C-alpha cells in the first residue's frame, strides 16, 4: 500500500474521533424540547448525507457500466449500494432514538420517514433482483438499469413529497431548517467535519468490499482455467 | 413514428384475437370489486370515504401490475427476437407504453364505474376523480412497463414484478391517493394543482428514462 491512498484514511479516523469527542463534550445551545439531543445532529444527519452520496456514487457506476460494460463498475455499484443501505439503516435507528425523545414516538407519521422506508425497500429489491440471475452479464446489466430507474423514482419521494405536506423534520412544511436558528457556529465546526468523516468512512468500507469482491472474482477465474 | 404505429397495431390485433388481457383483467377487476363489496358493503354498510378511496387504488394497482406483467411475456422469445431485428428499441418501448396506457385507461375508468356502482359514490367532484384515475393509468403504465421488461428476463417473473414495482410505484400512488382525496372532498382544481403537476413531472421523467434505458435491456 502506498502513501497516496493511505492518507485519507488517517484523515477519516482523526475526523471521526473529533466528531465523537467534540460532539459529546462540546458546548451546544439549550433549545426547548431538543436539549442535549441536538448532539444527534452530528450522527443522524451526516449518516443521511453519507447515504445520499453513496447512492449517487452507486448510480454513477451503474451508468458507467451501461456505457462501458466493464465488470469493475458493476462491482463498484453493488458495493456502494450495500454500504448506502447500511448507512440508511443506521440513520433510521439514530432517527428513531432521537424521535423517541423529542417527538415522543420513535416512528411518528412523517413523510420523510416513509420515504426512507420506501428507499430501503427499493434497495432491498435491487439486491433481490441481483440474486435472481445466474448469468453475470445479464445480472449486471439489468440491475444497473433498475438501479438508475429506482434512484430516479426515489428522489421525488425524498425531495418533493415532504415539501408538499407537513413534516416534523426541520426545513419541510414550514418548519425552519436547522441552519437558521438551532445551530450556532461552534456546532457548525463539528457538523461539517462530521459529514466529511461519515462519508469518508462509507467510502473506506466500500473500498474494502470492492477489494474483497475483486479478489473473489480473481479466485473464481483462477479455478476456471 | 411509423414503426410505433405498426407496433401498436400489432399489439392491438393480438389483443383483439386473444382478448386475453382485456377480458382477463376485466374479470379480475369485477371479482376483486365484488369481493370488496361482499366483505365491506354487505357486512357493515358504512364505509369511510378514505377507506373507499384507498381500497379502489389498491384494486387498481394490483390490476395494473398483473396486466402490465404480461406485456413482455405474452409473446414467445423467438418472436420478440424477430421484432428486435425489425424495429428500434425506442419505438418498441414507446409503443408498449402507449398500448399499456390505453389498457390502463380503459380498465381504470371502467373499474371506477363498477366500483361506484357496487361500493357507493362518496366523490364530490367526479370529473377531478376521473382525471386522477386517468393520470394514474398513465403513471402506472409508464412506471411498470420498464420494470416488466426487467422482470421478464428472469425466471420468477411474477414475484420479481411485485418486488421490483411496488417500492417504485409508491411515490406515484401516494400522490394519486392525495389527489383523489381532494376530488373526494370536492376542494376544487386549484387545491389539486401541486399534485397534478408533480404526477405529470414524474410521468415525464419515467418515460424519458424508459426511453433511454430500454435499449440496454434489449441487448440481453
**Oligomeric form:** heterodimer
Order of helices and strands of chain A: HHHHHHHH
Strand segment count of chain A:
0
What is the straight-line distance between the termini of chain A? 29 Å
Give the mean pLDDT of chain B: 84
Strand proportion of chain A: under 5%
Number of helical stretches of at least 4 residues of chain A: 8
Largest sheet of chain B: none
Order of helices and strands of chain B: HHHHHHHH
- Number of separate domains of chain A: 1
- Helical content class of chain A: over 70%
Largest sheet of chain A: none
Shape of chain B: globular
Rounded to the nearest angstrom, the radius of gyration of chain A is: 20 Å
User: Structural class of the helices, strands and pairings of chain A?
Assistant: mainly alpha
Question: How many H/I helices of chain B?
Answer: 8
Unreliable segments of 5+ consecutive residues of chain B: none
Amino- and carboxy-terminal Cα gap of chain B: 25 Å
Concise synopsis of the structure shown:
Chain A is mainly alpha-helical and 225 residues long. Chain A contains eight helices and no strands. Chain B has one domain.
Describe the structure.
- The complex is a heterodimer of chains A (225) and B (220).
- Chain A is mainly alpha-helical and 225 residues long.
- Chain A has one domain.
- Chain A is 75% helix and 0% strand.
- Chain A contains 8 helices and no strands.
- Chain A is globular.
- The model of chain A has no long low-confidence stretch (mean pLDDT 81).
- Chain B is mainly α and 220 residues long.
- Chain B has one domain.
- Chain B is 87% helix and 0% strand.
- Chain B is built from 8 helices and no strands.
- In chain B, helix 1 packs across helix 5 (89-119) and helix 3 (49-73) packs parallel to helix 6 (126-152).
- Chain B starts with a helix and ends with a helix.
- Chain A binds chain B through residues 66, 114, 118, 121-122, 125, 128-129, 132-133, 137-138, 141-142, 144-146, 148-150, 152-154, 156-157, 160-161, 164, and chain B through 143, 146-147, 150, 153-156, 160, 163-164, 166-168, 170-172, 174-175, 178, 194-195, 198, 201-202, 205-206, 209-210, 213, 216-217, 219-220.
